[in-house]
Amino acid sequence: MKPSVILYKKLPDNLLRRLEAHFTVTRVHDLREETVRSHAQAFKEAVGLLGSSEKVDAALLDNMPALRATSTISVGYDNFDVEALNARKVLLMHTPTALTETVADTLMALILSSARRVVEVAERVKAGEWTKGIGPDWFGTDVHHKTIGIVGMGRIGLALAQRANLGFGMPVLYNARRQHKEAEARFNARHCDLDTLLQEADFVCSILPLTDETRHLFGAAQFAKMKSSAIFINAGRGPVVNEKALIAALKEGEIMAAGLDVFEQEPLSVESPLLSMPNVVALPHIGSATHETRYNMAATAVDNLIDALNGNVEKNCVNPQVA
Ligand code: 8YV
């Protein structure tokens, strides 16, 4: 008999078949209490759990006594209670390398579209305004050779530094817990404290994961330190930013614009003041959302679950110590 796993995200057919070659797969839509209750036996027997975005906490784990590994189709894992997993010796696998380049592309798209007002002016063209002529009120601000400040220098930060520095001639400042030798050697990146970065950068880009230390790291005091011409970009996690403070900073002209892929509450409410601000580009958390990358992430997550349940935790494992 094949071991049982729970799948709570849709997979491409060939990946589902790959998973089914190894496991008996129970497919569910989500991990809500009522879903767990209606598949109680499958959850009780499952040794593996595969999906993304849903909360995996102690209450869910209590319904999964046989669980040995979880695999998320994402790099971020703030929706997992890692302590609860560790306490039950359950492995957590993620996809840290599959989406790096695609998310860095999204960051450049946010930088370019915010600075050059791409979305706003394209809408004006569609509304027929071009026929009346364009003037300085259509102009944006330069990107090339401006200073980029990267908060969180991991794989994605490095790929962003490469694009910004080699492609756009931008000097790179970065703030991270550790010095990043490769970023310094290849892209002349300069390590600095957060305040220096906030004061000097023309583009402040947050690519931070959500942790107790990063929650609301960007608040009123941080926006006040930025240049009034600064553009704030966030493609890490929404709750790293105090959104009320960001809205106030944009309203009061403390910063010039923002390009956001992530929000404190997702999906973003239609009531959010951010949506009526012309100087805000808001994307629906699509940092990694290309056909190629989402496929690669799902394939990696399937392989990760197979690996983890075979005791192979050399790569992509958040908590290999519990193996
Ligand atoms: C995911 C992300 O697509 O990987 C991450 O951490 O934020 C995105 O790439 C998202 O979590 C949905 O799976």
TrEMBL record:
Subcellular location: Cytoplasm
Active site residues of this protein: 237, 266, 285 (proton donor)
Keyword terms: Cytoplasm, NAD, NADP, Oxidoreductase
D-isomer specific 2-hydroxyacid dehydrogenase NAD-binding domain boundaries: 108-287
Domain D-isomer specific 2-hydroxyacid dehydrogenase catalytic: 5-319
PROSITE patterns, A to Z: D_2_HYDROXYACID_DH_3
Enzyme Commission code(s) on record: 1.1.1.79, 1.1.1.81
The family this protein is said to belong to: Belongs to the D-isomer specific 2-hydroxyacid dehydrogenase family. GhrB subfamily.
Function: Catalyzes the NADPH-dependent reduction of glyoxylate and hydroxypyruvate into glycolate and glycerate, respectively.
Quaternary data: Homodimer.
Protein name: Glyoxylate/hydroxypyruvate reductase B
Name of the gene: ghrB
